[in-house]
From TrEMBL:
Keywords: NAD, Oxidoreductase. The keyword NAD applies. Residues 311-412 form the UDP-glucose/GDP-mannose dehydrogenase C-terminal domain. One of its GO terms (molecular function) is NAD binding. SUPFAM superfamilies: 6-phosphogluconate dehydrogenase C-terminal domain-like, NAD(P)-binding Rossmann-fold domains, UDP-glucose/GDP-mannose dehydrogenase C-terminal domain. It comes from Brevibacillus nitrificans. PANTHER family: UDP-GLUCOSE 6-DEHYDROGENASE TUAD. The keyword Oxidoreductase applies. One of its GO terms (biological process) is UDP-glucuronate biosynthetic process. Pathway: Nucleotide-sugar biosynthesis; UDP-alpha-D-glucuronate biosynthesis; UDP-alpha-D-glucuronate from UDP-alpha-D-glucose: step 1/1. This is UDP-glucose 6-dehydrogenase.
Length: 428
């Protein structure tokens, strides 16, 4: 099928490349000329494992092209809208890019097939697709579908090629048929429903996953006092298929471009309708205070961090990405600096981006360099480079062998046996 993807950010680019890999003819569109020039040369503006290789391959095969001009997409039967819906000042989703893209599509001439489906992949408040369809009413060649994405950064290509499920919201047989044809050959459960339900599924899924994490983080606080081990508790809980083993990892909190933004947007939406989502409110509270709670444990142990050197391992909001949006590391660096600590930080790829915000931190090129002379080390992002370490060398190089594992990813028991003072999140 001929498909245009408007917006070549993280979601748009991954969608464009994966649809090209499924054999469709794809045109990626973005207003930013420099980005399009870069993409045409097979260079990905974001770091995502496997993305650049697949991009190059698809460009070579000729079923992926890029343009700054929407008019180049006049033959596209499907128009994926993948533009950002950033957080507005009141927490709601800012739809200005989305609405501009829809109006660009509406002004295009009809494709020779006579019909076109506008597919909204951007995360939008429930009811947005219906409102857009209402605005386009009278244009018989345009249909509107909602098709939310569930991609995780760091494994986005894998998730796009083998999705957990495909959710399609529409109100016309022609739109469902086009979407069916598009995803023919993708082996995943499909939910076909209304646009509003599809939009709600996306927000509800992210809110639920965020809830699982904050629930475990709050239990981890209790676990610390009880002297129990939250990782073992999570393991035992996860064996119950009604609970499931995923997203039960306690840590220093969730970050990224989705959970923080989507939870506040859902709270905003609920508020507009006079509904209080009190659980979700608490989920956000726990997440906001989790880095400070963990830092307090460190301060207790060190009797304050002023004048001490702290090693910070991992800065990206999760491994395998250079994304630092809402990363817990930023809160940690800010608090540590405010309290007078000196910091040596390591991240395999995100250091340069963090440096722009925190120029007074020492950024080292190798994880072991961060530990040198440190009075304590904290793991914030569980990159394999930050986990698979030569602990013997590290112990000899630290000023004090104190480890604070903010992701419960270091081998606690082994480290204690090796003479380290080890503290995890909800496990001592
Ligand atoms: C998330 C959703 O998983 C994805 O379906 C949606 O499309 C976008 O938002 P992403 O933000 O890329 O994806 O990463 P994810 O793996 O979900 O992790 C989000 C954050 O939660 C990270 O900071 C991670 O460290 C944290 N997390 C995750 C935990 O603290 N504990 C867990 O058990 C799982």
């Amino acid at each position: 099928m001929k498909v245009a993807v408007i917006g070549t950010g993280y979601v748009g680019l991954t969608t464009a490349v994966s649809l090209a890999m499924h054999g469709h003819e794809i045109l990626g569109i973005d207003l930013v000329a420099a980005k399009i020039a870069q993409l045409r040369q097979g260079k990905s503006p974001i770091y995502e494992p496997g993305l650049e290789e697949a991009l190059t391959q698809m460009l070579e095969q000729g079923n992926l092209q890029f343009s700054t001009e929407i008019k180049d997409a006049s033959e596209a039967e499907m128009m994926f809208i993948c533009v950002g819906t950033p957080e507005a000042s009141d927490g709601s989703a800012d739809l200005s890019y989305l609405l501009a893209a829809v109006s660009d599509v509406a002004s295009l001439q009809q494709p020779s097939s006579g019909k076109r489906v506008i597919v909204i992949k951007s995360t939008v408040p429930v009811g947005t697709g219906d409102r857009i369809a209402e605005q386009l009413r009278g244009n018989d060649s345009l249909y509107v579908a909602s098709n939310p994405e569930f991609l995780r950064e760091g494994s986005a290509m894998q998730d796009a090629l083998n999705p957990s499920r495909i959710v399609i919201g529409a109100d016309h047989e022609a739109a469902f048929a086009a979407m069916e044809q598009l995803y023919k050959g993708v082996n995943a459960a499909k939910v076909t429903t209304t646009r509003a339900n599809a939009e709600f599924i996306k927000y509800a899924s992210n809110a639920f996953l965020a809830t699982k994490i904050s629930f475990m983080n709050e239990l981890a606080r209790l676990s610390t006092v009880l002297g129990t081990d939250i990782t073992t508790v999570a393991q035992g809980m996860g064996l119950d298929s009604r609970i499931g083993p995923e997203f039960l990892r306690a840590g220093v909190g969730y970050g990224g471009s989705c959970f923080p933004k989507d939870t506040i947007a859902l709270l905003q939406l609920a508020g507009q309708h006079g509904i209080s989502l009190s659980i979700l409110d608490k989920v956000r509270d726990v997440n906001t205070t989790q880095p400070a709670w963990f830092l307090e444990r460190l301060e207790e142990q060190l009797h304050g961090v002023a004048g001490k050197k702290i090693a910070v391992l991992g800065l990206a909001f999760k491994p395998d990405t250079d994304d630092i949006r809402e990363a817990p590391s930023l809160k940690m660096l800010e608090a540590l600096q405010k309290k007078g600590a000196s910091i040596a930080a390591y991240d395999p790829i995100a250091s340069a981006i963090v440096e722009a915000q925190f120029p007074n931190v020492e950024y080292v090129k190798h994880p072991s360099a961060a530990f040198k002379g440190a009075h304590a080390a904290m793991l914030i992002t569980e990159w394999k480079e930050c986990v698979q370490l030569d602990w013997k060398e590290i112990k000899a190089s630290m000023a004090a062998p104190i480890l604070f594992d903010g992701r419960n990813a270091w081998p606690g028991d082994l480290l204690k046996d090796a003479g380290f003072a080890y503290t995890g999140v909800g496990r001592s």
